[in-house]
Design a protein that fits this description.
Elements: E1 10-13, H1 19-30, E2 34-37, H2 42-54, E3 59-61, H3 69-83, E4 86-91, H4 113-141, E5 145-152, H5 153-157, H6 163-183, E6 188-195, H7 204-207, H8 210-216, H9 228-239, E7 250-253
Parallel strand pairs: 1-2, 1-4, 2-3, 4-5, 5-6, 6-7
Length: about 260
């Protein structure tokens, strides 16, 4: 028996147009899931869905901004209509979402709420909106399910210069733990994956700075940058039958940047 087999299951992956989200969508598809690929850039979502179909999988693009509940409700309805009841929700959309250009890294006391909103909107309101949109039908279907939220070690240990981001990710982790307690009786699990420095389009600028990377990696037990596929492997495990008795947990996939009990 292949415990990682996701055949017959439908997954929504937010922020899946590139980076970690794309890797998760592709891994879930490779294990048999039907995948709804979300991104706020429609062209990116279409490209990933097309690549999955070209590889023999089943996927559709469901573009939309996760900070808008009405958009999330619409994309969830489309996923159900075209792929079937949602069994797996991966809250991956992160960073500052569509408002990245508004964000600058300065001392917290020099920032203003417009900068906080960019982080709080996508990293905290996004998971709230997605859970609100997907969970009623998942509960009603009575076939269990998986909720997986990608957070950051910034939400676990804090990150100077990224206070709002750290707070939003910590909030998403708290949401996930609360939902785990609410949803357990329905055989729906809820877990987080906490990631650290990972090679994605969002990090390519500073990853190219060898001196910066060398200095940063002194804080990592495994002295290299993480790869999206390594995050996707954990997400696939948590989405599978192998993780059926695991809920309310946060799994660091971080090269040993920080440890967890």
């Amino acid at each position: 028996m292949n415990l990682l087999d996701l055949t017959g299951r439908t997954a929504i992956v937010t922020g899946a147009g590139q980076g970690v989200g794309r890797a998760i969508a592709e891994h879930l598809s490779a294990h048999g899931a039907r995948v709804a690929v979300n991104d706020y850039v429609a062209g990116r979502a279409e490209a990933v869905a097309g690549a999955i179909r070209a590889a023999g999988g089943t996927a559709i693009a469901v573009p939309g901004d996760v900070t808008e509940l009405s958009a999330v409700m619409a994309l969830a309805d489309r996923a159900v209509g075209e792929l079937g009841p949602v069994d797996v929700l991966v809250n991956n959309a992160g960073n500052a979402g569509a408002a990245t250009s508004k964000v600058t890294q300065r001392p917290f006391w020099e920032t203003d709420p417009a900068e906080w909103d960019a982080f709080i909107g996508v990293n905290l309101l996004g998971p709230l909106n997605c859970a609100r949109a997907v969970l009623p039908a998942m509960v009603e279907a009575g076939r269990g399910g998986r909720l997986i939220t990608i957070i950051s070690d910034a939400g676990r240990v804090g990150e100077p210069g990224l206070e709002a981001y750290s707070a939003a990710k910590a909030g998403a982790a708290g949401l996930t733990r609360a939902l785990a307690r609410t949803l357990g009786r329905f055989e729906i699990t809820a877990n987080c994956i906490a990631i650290a420095a990972t090679r994605t389009p969002a990090t390519e600028r500073w990853v190219a700075d060898e001196e910066h990377v060398k200095k940063m990696l002194r804080n990592y037990v495994i002295r290299r940058i993480g790869e999206p596929d390594e995050i996707a492997a954990m997400a696939t495990f948590l989405a599978s039958s192998a993780a059926g008795w695991i809920t309310g947990q946060t799994y660091p996939v971080n090269g040993g940047f920080s440890f967890n009990l």
